[in-house]
Amino acid sequence: MSKEDLLLMAMAVALVALVVRWQIGKFSDKVDRGEAGFKRHSEQDSVADDARDSANSLSDSASFDERGVKSAYVAFCDVVDAEFARFKEMAKSGGGAGGGSGGFGAGGGAGGLRGDVLARLDDFSRELVFIQTMGEGVGKRRWEEKLFGFLSRVDEFVLENFGQDELDGMRERLQKAWQKI
After folding, report:
1. Whether 110 contacts 76, CB under 8 Å
2. What is the DSSP letter of 94?
3. If exposure means fewest CB atoms within 10 Å of the residue's CB, which of 118, 150, 156, 181 is most exposed?
4. Residue 83: CA count within 13 A, CB half-sphere
5. How much is the pTM?
């Protein structure tokens, strides 16, 4: 075989590879859209699909439109931010957990710890602003997923730095605000 024959065969193989790749891409798109003409056989897939469908129907059956969802959640985020402002004031005045003079955990009331608490509260505030500015098309389910994940981390922080009583008080105030949504 000459170099010309090898080159011709390589070009033919490359052309076939491109056609096969294009066909696989078309088929993958059909599968993604559900137009492939076959059903999934895995029980785990069908359970996941059922859960996804029920979650979508719950979020689709909301009693208010997407703008209402966003404004309600943004208002709730404002309440959370007010809690952060309250905790910042407590931190500045030395009112953390742990008894002692100024508290802030078991380590006492060192200024470095107070600065760490204030910095962490600022980080939470920035993250909350990010959540508040999520796009218009974000549905109820996505808002709740983001907010509840965020609030779980905030709970741990408040418990560690301000104590159970402050955590309970914050949860109660946030629960009242949540019920208004």
Report:
1. no
2. T
3. 156
4. 25
5. 0.55
